[in-house]
Design goal:
It contains ten helices and nine strands. By secondary structure, the protein is of the alpha/beta class. The longest helix is centred in the C-terminal third of the chain and has 12 residues.
Length: 260
Amino acid sequence: MKNTHRPNKNLGQNFLIDTRIQRKIIDICQLQATDHVLEIGPGKGAITRLIFPLVNQLTVVEKDPALASLLKKKYKNSSLKVIEGDFLKQDFKDQASLVVIGNIPYNISTPIIEKLIAQREKVKKAFLMVQLEFGERLAAKEGSKDYGSLSCYLQYYFEAHILFKISPGSFHPQPKVQSCFVSLIPRSKPILQVSDETGLFKFIQTAFMQRRKTFANAIKGFANQEDILSELNRLNINPRARPEEISLLNFIKIYNSLVI
């Protein structure tokens, strides 16, 4: 029987129907037979069917009951594991070295990134389809309009790269914006060690909440101006620099020097 499933707007479903892009995704992931792949939101299984022959372990997490049921029937008596539920509520405790692949709805993109960061020790690498605007925020460097606290938070733990862009016509229904395919590779060690990561991210977030101010004024609640200006001078940073001009490395150096 032909599948007539209609995309669920509430779940942000936009199915990837471009077979050329599907194949490009698989090629770029360079999956090995020994990989344990965790696919987020497999939908009708367009990517699933390409991953399945390549790896020994494939787990898919699908929130839509109708699609989860469809996949269970299609892969009945196979090694494919279908979990019907919300990815954000899944427990990674028995997993290790996962290759995460997914087509991520915009409305839960940030929570999914936060989940991957929280479970980073279980993640070997991740490949995600996201809206281009969001992908640019993830991969942005200092000096870019897209650079912000999310960029710093993710890049403290992962190397992030936009691998290629995907046009709206590659999906059904067509989204109103472009998408992209990003890679997230966990860092083997921190850019620079910090003893209080939560404090660092609060420091960075505070700075970006006041983008119109100079960086020195934006963080004045953390240290006195004389010390701030002295540290900026030591790092050859313009005292009039805005928060978006401060690299993650320099954010860490300044935090380690002035706050801890």
